[in-house]
Amino acid sequence: MTQDNPSISNAIANGAGSNNSAATNPASSWPAFSLAQPYMLNLNQTGGREVSANAAVAPVPGLSNQTVYEGPGLVNDLSLVNAWTWEDGRGVRCDFWRSVAALVPE
């Protein structure tokens, strides 16, 4: 139960592959989203070895030639990011799609 707080312990956030599971992690003190603090949690991973995945086993079914990482060395790489500016302006793109959602056929 999160009690309206999605924060998780450092050990869980850092993951089993971490060299320091007690290290402070952004997911351990995740602030509530607000216009003054527009943070979201970027759930990323690093390490391992790069492999090409076919459409049957790739993270996005039907999309071929995906690169995934697997094997030893995978570790969580979680960070708090600005929801408006992350990935070259994701928040602006989300606002656009929200504004035209009623016009887009499903």
Can you walk me through this structure?
This protein has two helices and four strands, in the order H-E-E-E-E-H. By secondary structure, the chain is of the alpha+beta class. It has one domain. The strands form two sheets. The protein has a two-stranded antiparallel ribbon. Strands 2-3 form a two-stranded antiparallel ribbon.
Overall pLDDT level: 82
Continuous helix count: 2
Quaternary state of this entry equals: single chain
> What is the share of helical residues?
10-25%
Strand content: 15-25%
Number of domains: 1
Tell me, briefly, the overall form.
flat
| Rg from alpha-carbon coordinates | 17 Å
Q: What order do the helices and strands follow?
A: HEEEEH
Uncertain ranges: none
- The total strand number stands at 4
Give a short account of the largest sheet: 2 strands, antiparallel
Record the strand order, biggest sheet: 1-4
Structural class: alpha+beta
Distance between the termini: 34 Å
